[in-house]
Amino acid sequence: MVKIAVCGAAGRMGGRIIAAIKEAEGVEL
After folding, report:
1. Every domain of the chain and the residues it spans
2. Calpha distance 23→25 (Å, rounded)
3. pLDDT (tens digit, 9 = 90+) per residue, 1-29?
4. pTM exceeding 0.85
């Protein structure tokens, strides 16, 4: 249950960062 909450918070903040990394590296993680 805790993992879902963490993924939800990280998904909102980290989602933007991951998207930027994907565009920069051009690699799907």
Report:
1. 1-29
2. 6
3. 566 666 676 667 777 887 788 787 775 55
4. no
